[in-house]
Design brief:
Layout lengths: L5 H10 L7 H15 L4 E4 L15 H29 L3 E4 L12 H26 L9
Helix pairs in contact: 1-2, 2-3, 3-4
């Protein structure tokens, strides 16, 4: 079934995007979306891979890099790339999806650590946004 409009086409293409663990890839996703749609009003960061239920001593370095790269670094880069445009536009919403594993932890050591990091990053961004909105001399580069 063909997609009805350019919004559906863009959403479909960028939902399927992979490789967000590099800033350049995230900037390409954001820039491509803005080129096609004109703006990004909402970013939903909902990415994650598990660490195969390994502990600190048994998680392979390559798997750790993959988990941290997608679950936390990629989310951070998507926030950064999108916030530049949202700040210039004066509006926008970012929803970062974490996991109960980031609060109560579970057998997935790397995964739980990254999801706790998502909660921390989101808290910092929320407070930074509030400070920037309420303090006229707030440094826009602080957050």
């Amino acid at each position: 079934m063909p997609l009805k409009n350019k919004n559906e086409r863009a959403a479909s293409r960028y939902e399927a995007a992979q490789g967000i663990s590099r800033l350049e890839d995230c900037e390409n996703i954001v820039d491509g979306t803005i080129a096609e749609l004109g703006a990004i009003d909402v970013l939903v960061n909902n990415s994650g891979i598990d660490d195969s239920f390994k502990g600190v001593l048994t998680t392979m370095d390559e798997r750790l890099d993959d988990v941290v790269g997608l679950d936390l670094t990629g989310l951070f880069y998507m926030c950064r790339a999108t916030m530049r445009h949202m700040t210039a536009a004066g509006s926008g919403v970012i929803v970062n999806v974490s996991s109960v594993g980031g609060v109560f932890f579970n057998a997935e050591t790397a995964y739980s650590a990254t999801k706790a990091g998502v909660i921390g990053l989101t808290t910092v961004l929320r407070h930074g946004y509030t400070l920037q909105r309420n303090l006229p001399r707030s440094d826009p580069d602080a957050f």
